[in-house]
Design goal:
The chain is mostly helical. Among the domains are: about 35 residues; about 80 residues, no CATH class. It is built from six helices and no strands. The radius of gyration is 49 Å and the shape is elongated. About 0% of the residues are buried. InterPro entries: Troponin, Troponin_I, Troponin_sf.
């Protein structure tokens, strides 16, 4: 196809589509006018106070009816959404393809975790060092004694004086 032919066909299609859109807009406008005539009659302004009060009561009654319908529809939608969610969960259970969500790692101290679990009323201090018993170090008498010559100290502690003397006697 030549480019002029393509251009001509394209312009024809656009003109047809434009005409269809205009007709559709006219139909929508006529539908809106017809709906307004049916549901919203023209307001005739009352001349007396009693007629005005009657008109207000009628309008309030219509508002109440519409609010009740809106509420009922909202409740039906909420109920349907809950049923849909429950059915989705059942389908997932039946399929067996439930994926466990990835949990975030949380850095929390033991004190903060206990405070979160037990509430702010309980202040628990998990300082383990404070709970340990204090042990006093016993100082040995031997350590306090002046060591003096280290060779004598070793000979005294060895307890093998008899053997040592045997070796010295043989030599």
């Amino acid at each position: 196809m030549s480019s002029s032919r393509k251009h001509h066909l394209k312009s024809l299609m656009l003109s047809i589509a434009k005409g269809l859109l205009e007709e559709e807009e006219k139909e929508q406008e006529e539908e809106r006018i017809r709906y307004m005539d049916e549901n919203c009659p023209p307001v005739s302004m009352p001349r007396s106070m009693q007629e005005l009060q009657a008109l207000c009561r009628e309008i309030h009654h219509k508002i109440d009816v519409t609010d009740e319908e809106r509420y009922d529809l909202e409740m039906k939608v909420n109920k349907s959404n809950k049923e849909i969610d429950d059915l989705k969960i059942k389908v997932q259970d039946l399929m067996g393809k439930f994926k466990k969500p990835v949990l975030k790692k949380v850095r929390m101290s033991a004190d903060a975790m206990l405070k979160a679990l037990l509430g702010s009323k309980h202040t628990v201090n998990l300082d383990l060092r404070a709970n340990l018993k204090q042990v006093k170090k016993e100082v040995k008498e031997e350590e306090l004694r002046d060591v003096g010559d280290w060779r004598k100290n070793i000979e005294d502690k060895s307890g093998m004086d008899g053997r040592k003397k045997m070796f010295e006697a043989e030599a």
